[in-house]
Amino acid sequence: MAPMITTHTSASPAALPRIAVLATGGTIAGSAADAAQTSGYQAGVVGVDRLLAAVPALSQVARIEAEQVASIDSKDLDVALWTTLGGRIAELAAREDIDGIVVTHGTDTLEETAYALHLTVKTDKPVVLTAAMRPSSALSADGPLNLLGAVTVAGSRAARGQGVLVAFNNRIHCARDVAKTSTYAVDAFHSPEIGALGWVQDGRVEFQRAALRPHTSATPFVVGASWPAVEVVASYAGASRTAVDALVAAGVRGIVVAGTGNGSIHATIQAALGEARAGGVAVVRASRVGSGHVMRNGAAPDDALGFVSAGTLNPYKARVLLMLALAAGESAPAALQQIFDTY
Ligand code: ASP
Description:
Strand order of the largest sheet: 1-11-10-7-6-5-4-2-3
Bound molecules: aspartic acid
Low-confidence stretches: none
Shape: globular
Number of helices: 9
């Protein structure tokens, strides 16, 4: 497949794409008392109008309408916001005059929101998330350029049908693959092992490849009013079964284990998870390593215990897919593995 490229020339304002910007807070909307401060600031306190006003060049690439959907630090994100965002995106995407949608978000849980939307929004129109590592008040704040990049991608023909995208630091990532990989670096988002889909710079949007797995309209998943309880536990030296037993007693529907290496699990936790699965709790093995894939039966007897391998999904994305699969009525190990092998 040839690369898909869109270059924005200075079109007349009426010919520019119309982009809806949904703001949810995050560091991109953060503010500190001192311009030199890049930690310990308050996230999610600057309104979307001020974010847009800081980027006059936006008027050269799009006609924008903006909404403040939330004003939170995304570390505190509640999955109910995915229901709200999904509903609002559906309404906007159904409008003929809207060409694309941008969501501004905190970096901490951006990859989870992006994947939840990638699996559930039913539109070919570009939906692009962006964020920032430095608050809007900082010297060399990265939010304005990231916002310009995201709006440029959302308005490009090349981004149509590519699923939910993350535009960050000039790169364009697939929502499924991208992860936050640094606590403070401005270049904080990567798609480990797989790489970005393309890049955006100076009005030019270029895709070098497309995501192969089904997404958006090609999945059976929808954002529902409620999300099944699924939690993540980690495996490590000296781990006990206390957390798994407590979660099962609390009635969770699924547990994702952030295993060591190839999703391997401490024998104590594995025994507890085996009992959980026998009692009807879905168990998915992911890895805490941060890149690579988890092989089925490679580090745990999945067939014998009814566990599912997360493949290349990190534990937090595996949790998103497991919640959606359970909400769709799937809970048998074979059906869940099929879902994890597909999406
Ligand atoms: N804690 C912030 C958030 O996720 C961090 C950021 O946006 O960079 O909202």
